[in-house]
Design brief:
- Helix content is 76%, strand content 0%.
- It has 146 residues and is an all-alpha fold.
- The longest helix has 61 residues.
Length: 146
């Protein structure tokens, strides 16, 4: 990544905001590198070698490091959020599959008049009540015993 030529053009441009506007249009992860190249360019252009300029450039370097750290923290948080959403979706699918399995077992016990059919009828009634309370009841799921 070499932005030096473009940065030099922007330094020489009459528009004071052009450089920052351009930098902000670049990908977030590239911005610290662009700022580091700008700092190097400013060091090369500094003919005085003054202590004030040197101090300013050190502060700029520190600011760039902090900015990069914030960007990386934000990207990490974003990645962790996406991973958590994926995990939540996976867990919900597992819960749905387990619920479907339990429902199928309860219905099978009732339909085949298994030894526990009476208990399963009671359990089916409680599950149906709970589904109605939570808004997840679908009569199609229970059509074999309703």
């Amino acid at each position: 990544m070499n932005y030096k030529d473009h940065l030099l053009e922007l330094i020489l441009d009459d528009d004071d905001n052009a450089m920052m506007n351009w930098i902000l249009l670049q990908p977030l992860l590239d911005q610290p590198q662009i700022l580091r190249e700008l700092k190097e360019l400013l060091e090369e252009l500094d003919s005085t070698g003054s202590k004030e300029v040197s101090t300013l450039l050190m502060r700029l370097d520190k600011g760039i490091d902090e900015y990069e750290e914030r960007i990386l923290d934000e990207k990490l948080a974003e990645a962790q959020y996406l991973m958590a959403l994926e995990q939540q979706e996976k867990t919900m699918k597992e819960i749905d599959a387990a619920t479907d399995g339990i429902r199928a077992y309860v219905i099978e016990c009732i339909v085949t008049n298994a030894p526990n059919a009476k208990e399963m009828k009671e359990l089916a009634g409680k599950i149906i009540e709970l589904e109605k309370e939570t808004g997840t009841f679908d009569p199609e799921n229970w059509k074999e015993i309703l």
